[in-house]
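Run log, item B.
One chain of 163 residues. Sequence copied directly from the ordering sheet:
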Amino acid sequence: MSDETTMRMRNMLRDVMMETLEEFAFMFAEAGEYATEPADSSVEYLASSVVFRGADQCGEVLVALPVSMCAEMAANVMGMDAEDVPETAVEDAIREWANIVTGSLTAKWFGVNTVFSLDPPSALRGALAEVTVLEGGAEPVVLSVDDQQVVGCLRMASEGDAR
């Protein structure tokens, strides 16, 4: 993939992440700067990734948020207070957001008439640098929500290179 195409995809991922955070979770983001060691290194992150296949392309989208922000996301979606959200709903919220981001991104990039299959989203907890690693060294897209990093990564490959 050319550098120009890669940049366009990263910009589209950033835009989709911002739009879907606002529409799905009522969270407002702005462009941010990536730091593998956030100011508060004790912050635990929750990441979710979705592998997609179709149109002779395959890839993986990964999104990561601080766990506390995932709880807030779940609360916003469920219409509850964050402290009342069951732990399972916290992971479900980021998994669903990863699905929405992936579906929106593939529809915008390849068109709504192109069929893609999405694998079930995975989830992983840990430090930011641990949960945002994708094969192929995808450069992260970073947003800031209430001074916290929200990270997205995109890895593209041809259909024959699917993992």
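Observations after the first pass:
- The chain has one domain: 3-161.
- Strands lie at 30-31, 45-54, 57-66, 117-118, 122-126, 141-145, 148-158.
Flagged for discussion on Thursday.
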